[in-house]
Amino acid sequence: MEAEIKLSGDGKEERQSTELNLDISADKMEDCCGIVEAFDNLLEHYGGHSRLRTIANKGIHDSVSKKCVVDTSKLLASFYDELKSASGYENRYDKLSETSHKYKDNHDFVKHFDNWSKSRKDMIKIIKSAAEELDRNLLVCNIAGIIGGIAEILFSLNFCLPFSISSYAYAVSPKLGLVMDIALELGRNLRFMGLSSSFIGILESQMVINRIENAIRNDNCMFTPLREWFDETKELDDFVKRLFPYGINKEITLNIERTLEDLGKEEKIFSATVLSNFIEDPMILKNGNFMFEAFLFSKSDTAKEWYKRLISGTCTLNLEYETFYISDEMVEIFPDSALEIELGKCIVLELEHILMKNFRSILGRLLICCMSGMSIYNCIESTNTGSRHGYSTALRKLSTNAQLFLNTMEKTMHLMIV
User: Fold this and answer.
1) How would you write the chain as a 3-class SS string?
2) Which of 62, 112, 169, 364 has its CA 20 to 30 A from that of 126?
3) pTM for the whole thing?
4) pLDDT tens digits, residue range 83-128?
């Protein structure tokens, strides 16, 4: 049965239950024997030490374990009050003074966060617009490649056939012949349209990537003070774990914070420290040095700073490292398959000039027709699939990860301010 907490006339807490009476008067707490006896009496209502083993192995996942933690925390809070009022404890040397100075509160943290938040939002906006711009550029290149490929095929066929295509068209219809003349004349000028558009697309894409790199570099610079704070938080957490034999259980600490809002911060820290170690070693309460160290720690600025950071939530940086990860190929935009085909056609054209007035030039033209057909097919396939640039998907994932981390940081800041 859960112990009830009542206030006596002098303002001190008394624990009462219909089935047990926990006597925690000052004379019993003086040498830690009272707290051991009170704990033993309380644990009998929750299955004894087997309940502690359940909490240690499985965590606080059921209502009985939660009530056990709440009641024992209240009991420890009263013991903390007894230690605090005892003579001699207030004037003891605080061993944690140097650490308290090192891990002091960063008053500029909110300012740093605001600056970084603006930078992060700008970066996300740039990355999203860059992904759209890369896709638009690819669509334009695909359309230009289709037009250039068709023009190249017409021009090459007119060159290879023993008769002029326009002459044959005039024989069929004068209007058709006129259209073919215009098409062939345009083909002479438009056949390099695919090649030129691909090169322009590469230059524009490289400019887009440069904007992204500048935005990420600025965001990373703004995030540096926050990263240092989180690294310091991890270092502080490791330091606290080394202070006590079994560290301080985070789940127990958060459970105490959620369920015992009426307790002071020092009492919560003391309860979490003692209970975390008591669950692992029930005999540790008889260790006066441990109890005194836990008491000193709970009164230190180090403990308060650690507790504040723990309650606000530790924001993992793994997601952020993934956000800033850009593969090496994104540093430079390499030619896509359509451009490689266009470059191949240029090589064939050079051979044609060398082999001019030779039947091999006809073979070269036929080869160019085949390559133009491949280029047209590649551009049509790319257009049908939405003209997705090779890096636009990666950029969208980048912006999503960046937004997720920003949301996590905003929640962390809200908890810290509250």
Assistant:
1) CCCEEEECCCCCEEEECCCCEECCCHHHHCCCHHHHHHHHHHHHHHCCHHHHHHHHHHCCCCHHHHHHHHHHHHHHHHHHHHHHHCCCCCCCCCCCHHHHHHCCCCCCHHHHHHHHHHHHHHHHHHHHHHHHHHHHHHHHHHHHHHHHHHHHHHHHHHHHCCCCHHHHHHHHCHHHHHHHHHHHHHHHHHCCHHHHHHHHHHHHHHHHHHHHHHHHHHHHHHHHHHHHHHHHHHHHHHHHHHHCCCCCCHHHHHHHHHHCCCCCHHHHHHHHHHHHHHHHCHHHHHCHHHHHHHHHHHHCHHHHHHHHHHHHCCCCCHHHHHHHCCCHHHCCCCCCHHHHHHHHHHHHHHHHHHCCCCHHHHHHHHHHHHHHHHHHHHHHHHHHCCCCCCCHHHHHHHHHHHHHHHHHHHHHHHHHHC
2) 112
3) 0.58
4) 666 545 444 434 455 555 555 555 677 788 888 899 999 999 998 9
pLDDT band at 342 (very low <50, low <70, confident <90, very high): low
pLDDT for 214 equals 87
Q: Please, what is the end-to-end C-alpha distance for the chain in angstroms?
A: 34
Instruction: Map tokens 């127990």 to a residue.
Output: 252
Q: With 60 as the cut, is the pLDDT of residue 231 above it?
A: yes
Q: Mind listing the pLDDT tens digit for each residue in 28-40?
A: 344 455 666 776 7
